[in-house]
Amino acid sequence: MEKYLPSWAHAWIEQAQMVGLILLTLLVAWVLRLVARRLIRRFATHYSLPPEMVMGARRITTFVVHFGTLLVILRILGTSGAVLWTAFTGFAAVGAVAFFAAWSVLSNIFCTLLIFTTRPFRLHDYIEVLENGEKPGLKGRVIDVNLIYTTLLETGEGHEGTVLQLPNNLFFQRTVRRWRDPAQAPGGIQGDG
Q: Domain tally for the chain?
């Protein structure tokens, strides 16, 4: 076909072939994603899988298809596998260092999600975080829960009115005592009840 076209069009033919291959790759990826979703849906209805598992399977297959498509497109564009592998390992190493550097923050964020789902306490509950079974701990009314801290309005032993900010991962390392009404607490929790 090239011999029938003028010489200036030969470069355009190479580019058109590359664009055609990329479009074909995208079409195949789209079809693969549709087939995978249908298979997952059939599998889920046949075996009565929980929605969380179905959503996880969809996300994993979508990631694999998109990542594979990206690798194929980069290969079509002429990027070598060695360059891709070097870039991937470099990003993975930087990501691992960043993950370990931010571990305590990530731990608090994850514990916040657990607090919202397991609900060991709620806003306006009166709680006490115990060091161990014998010593009294930090206590107060929960006035805020954010991604990193839970804020307590402190009560008892002359600390009324002060505010404590406790890291959220602390609630999964210590025992937490909870009262919805301060009058129910043994010995009574003083404060704004």
A: 2
pLDDT digits (tens, 9 = 90+) for 38-81: 999 999 999 988 888 888 899 999 999 998 999 899 889 988 87
Give domain status of residue 4, yes or no: no
Q: Give Cβ neighbours of residue 181 (< 8 Å, ≥ 6 apart).
A: 126, 193
Residue type, 161: G
| Count of alpha carbons within 13 angstroms of residue 35, beta-carbon side | 7
Cα–Cα distances (Å) from 103 to 33, 90, 170, in that order, read 34, 20, 14
pLDDT cut 90: percent of the chain above it:
33
Say whether pLDDT at 187 is over 70.
Answer: no
Q: Indicate whether 50 belongs to any domain.
A: yes
112 and 130 together in one domain = no
In a domain, 190, yes or no: no
Task: Report which of 110, 146, 139, 109 is spatially closest to residue 125, judged by C-alpha positions.
Answer: 139
Q: Give pLDDT, residue 192.
A: 45
Q: Determine the Cα–Cα distance for residues 84 and 65; give it in Å rounded to an integer.
A: 17
Containing 129, the helix (H) or strand (E) segment is strand 126-130
Give me the percent of the chain exceeding a pLDDT of 70: 90
